[in-house]
Amino acid sequence: MKIIRADVIVTCPGRNFVTLKIETDEGVYGIGDATLNGRELAVASYLRDHVSPTLIGRDATRIEDIWQYLYKGAYWRRGPVTMTAIAAVDMALWDIMGKRAGLPLYKLLGGASRDAVMVYGHATGRDIPEALDRYAQHIEAGYKAVRIQCGVPNMRSVYGVSKGSDKYEPAKKGIVDEESWSSEKYLDFIPKLFDAVRDRFGFETHLLHDVHHRLTPIEAARLGKSVEPYRLFWLEDPTPAENQAGFRLIREHTVTPIAVGEVFNSIWDCKQLIEEQLIDYLRATLTHAGGITHLRRMADFASLYQVRTGCHGPSDLSPVCMGAALHFDLWVPNFGIQEYMGYPEAALDVFPHAWRFENGMMHPGEAPGHGVDIDEALAARYPYEPAYLPVARLEDGTLWNW
Ligand code: CS2
Ligand code: MG
Predict the structure, then answer these.
(1) Which of 239, 316, 343 to mutate to test the pocket of ligand 1 (most atoms within 8 A of CB)?
(2) d(CA 354, CA 368)
(3) Going by fewer Cβ within 10 Å, which terminus of the chain is more open, N or C?
(4) Which of 262, 309, 401 has most ligand 1 atoms within 8 Å of CB, for mutation?
(5) Domains contained in the chain, CATH given
(6) 80-101 and 63-72 are packed helices; what angle lies between their axes, rounded to 10 degrees?
(7) What is the model's pLDDT at position 165?
(8) What is the value of pTM for the model shown?
(9) Which ligand is closest to the CA of 38, given by its number?
């Protein structure tokens, strides 16, 4: 089964997505997500100019060999652009393999380890009352787990909170927004938010929160300790993880579970965090961590240390990634939870999909491959629109972690 084409489709149905479509001489094709929020065209070029030409004529069933070729053959290993491009190829090849075998992807991986996949949604509010109302809406929709993010008094803007009533979308079209940040104001406020959640809703639902890289290790330790009474499912990205050893300080002070890894793109980004059990959930997902072939190695390594998966799943990873990730989630033995933020209607139209949401759980469906397709004619009606993630500055103007 030879690869005869490998084309990149860039489309913007509500937001930008990059998709790789690989076609074979047996008429079977597969697609993979190559979306890197704010740097979409870098991955599109990496694929078009450097990867696709090397795929033509290769055996599409040699998934592992192609992965090794693209990883080692590039010489310049790792990094988000490279690993997102490799992930798109990998996802497309697994999709082809499933279609060729007439099997859903999860069966190729080893079959279902559970009946369905628990997901968490995003409740956001400009203040506590609004955030609690959104939390209530998620409970009514059947979610068993909800992430809550809230505006902080006397801070102009905060991660995870839309300025209007529309769904939160971090990338702003045409500009790099500048947000201001105060760790002091945040640290004083957040325990009040969780107290309000538990006071109104009790402990029936899993409560999650994303710090989004904003604290120093000792501040993260302080926050984790201060919120222990609220029994979070996880505190996410409490501090930037380049210094994996920094998480020892957090672990010394708190039993609040820690989730890290949406920005990771290889096992090397988290090897120490896992083997020293400095985290509880690994947030890496298929699109930015080298696809099925690499993420399952990361998950297997994590399982040795009782670290569970918690795949990243915002609206800036395409429905293709969501579909493939749900197959991965259904199979992976050390599953934790899957993020599901939902998509603009236009995106769901461009990407017909077999996955379904019901009562707080999702299932990838039984379609061969990953069960997601792309309507290329419809995709062409949504041209790319330059959009960038914000930056954050401390109130004195210091450039900070967004
Ligand atoms: C966030 C992401 O979902 C999350 O946990 O950290 O929404 C992140 O801000 C975006 O993926 C950045 O593009
Ligand atoms: Mg996050």
Answers:
(1) 316
(2) 10
(3) N
(4) 262
(5) 3-104 (3.30.390.10), 108-366 (3.20.20.120)
(6) 170
(7) 59
(8) 0.97
(9) 1
